[in-house]
Design goal:
The complex is a heterodimer of chains A (about 110) and B (about 130). With about 110 residues, chain A is mainly alpha-helical. Helix content of chain A is about 70%, strand content about 0%. Classes of the chains: A mainly alpha (about 110), B mainly alpha (about 130).
């Protein structure tokens, strides 16, 4: 199946594996750890949002890679790509909602 | 966290949201390698590379790099705000220039982005040093 893929699709998949799978998660993970904490509990915000974002982002990314290969290599349907797009968008929205209130002015 | 970093980090999160929304739309409607939509793909790339990644990294660097022993301890504040304004305008101009070809809006945006990035480089250069050194 893979040799039938066009190069641009493979190229984009690899780029998203690195930028979403590695870079975005590395940066978000470090930000979740290091950004100023809330003075009251829970200090890093609602942890469930973070876990939901993690699951959705990785499921969305996997679905994208598989769905793209399926669609291009075997003429598969487009719904996995729609679902992948939706999952990743919701995941990023949750990440932003989690980190936004922790970005605030601190003395020093 | 200094106010400039707050603005940069929040702007970068907004760019992440908009850039991801655009990417999701590209992926969900038709595969993004459709060459007819190269302009939208370029907007998606610019928003996520400059709007999110570069701005996020610069905002954190301005906050966390070693400070100068004397005020202003993070370097000239006006330079930071000027660079931030240039960066944001550059992104907006680039975005609008893609939506509707209005004169040199797109290339002005790219120039502003490059100038603002150079401004941040000037601002941060002296602070890239071991902690505890003047």
């Amino acid at each position: 199946m893979l040799p039938a893929l066009s190069n641009p699709a493979l190229h984009l998949g690899a780029i998203h594996l690195l930028t979403v799978g590695w870079l975005l998660q590395l940066i978000s993970g470090v930000a979740y750890w290091m950004f100023p904490r809330h003075p009251s509990a829970p200090p890093r915000g609602d942890e469930r949002l973070g876990w939901a974002a993690l699951v959705l982002l990785n499921t969305g990314l996997a679905l994208r890679l598989a769905g793209e290969a399926w669609r291009l290599g075997m003429g598969g349907p487009s719904w996995p790509l729609v679902l992948a797009a939706l999952f990743q968008l919701v995941a990023v929205t949750l990440l932003v909602a989690l980190l936004w209130p922790r970005i605030r002015e601190l003395r020093g | 966290m200094p106010r400039l970093s707050v603005w940069m980090l929040r702007s970068s999160l907004l760019a992440l949201l908009v850039g991801t929304g655009l990417g999701a739309w590209l992926l969900g409607t038709e595969p993004a390698y459709d060459t007819a939509r190269a302009g939208l793909r370029e907007m998606h790339l610019t928003l996520l590379l400059f709007g999110w990644l570069v701005q996020f990294v610069l905002g954190v660097a301005y906050w966390m790099l070693p400070r100068y022993p004397t005020a202003p301890d993070r370097g000239p504040v006006w330079l930071g705000w000027t660079a931030y304004a240039g960066f944001t305008l550059g992104l907006v101009f680039g975005f609008l220039g893609r939506l509707a070809p209005l004169g040199n809006l797109g290339s002005s945006g790219r120039l502003l982005l490059a100038g603002a990035t150079f401004g941040f480089l000037l601002l941060l250069w002296g602070r890239a040093k071991p902690f505890g050194t003047p």
